[in-house]
Amino acid sequence: MEQANISRMYGLEHTIAAKLFDGAQYPWELLPKISSFIVELGNSLPEEIFEKRGENIWIARSAKVAPTASITGPCIIDENAEIRHCAFIRGNAIVGKGAVVGNSTELKNVVLFDKVQVPHYNYVGDSILGYKAHMGAGSITSNVKSDKTLVVVRDGREEIATGLKKFGAMLGDCVEVGCGSVLNPGTVIGPESQIYPLSSVRGVVPERSIYKKQGEVVGRRQPT
């Protein structure tokens, strides 16, 4: 499943968590490793740039964090990130440089690359969002199947058993998710793809595509 390879999905120069990806082929392999990685990395961060604000919580001094935000460790919030009113970070979260975590947005076991935007009423759990990925208002990652079975990634007839019960979505660099969309467990969206608003997405969406609805995915036109 070449489309889902880390090398096809992400530019690792755009995350403080680049070393987390060492030796892995697919991004979901990293989900069980996020917590321990944060603790190891956090303890090595320079004190002149990052302040430790509680147990295993490191926040860049240049980041803006609303006093109403709730943050549980392990967590790293990188430089110039913005954590807005009533954001709820439940732990095992890396928030990249210049990223925005918005009003009433909830994060759990995630890596947000630099300049990711999850700005309005989003739930992002057990997921990795690439550089400049954006989730429109009310869009969420659904991270557990209704029958509670282990998640399988499907691309046409090709399948990969992940061995994971909790797996939200892998968004490549510069993905745009429309408002009110649900990304079902095991969704993989290739870089520079767009998801129409109010979509229910599952499986693999190819890079540089427009997802209109299930079974209707078209290529994006290249700029002239």
TrEMBL record:
Q: Where is the Mannose-1-phosphate guanyltransferase C-terminal domain?
A: 71-189
Q: Specify one Pfam family.
A: GMPPB_C
Against SUPFAM superfamilies, the record matches this protein to: Trimeric LpxA-like enzymes
Molecular function via GO = acyltransferase activity; nucleotidyltransferase activity
Keywords attached to this entry = Acyltransferase, Transferase
Keyword Methyltransferase on entry? no
Q: Which Gene3D superfamilies match?
A: Hexapeptide repeat proteins
Q: Can you name this protein?
A: Transferase family hexapeptide repeat protein
Q: Which organism is it from?
A: Cuneatibacter caecimuris
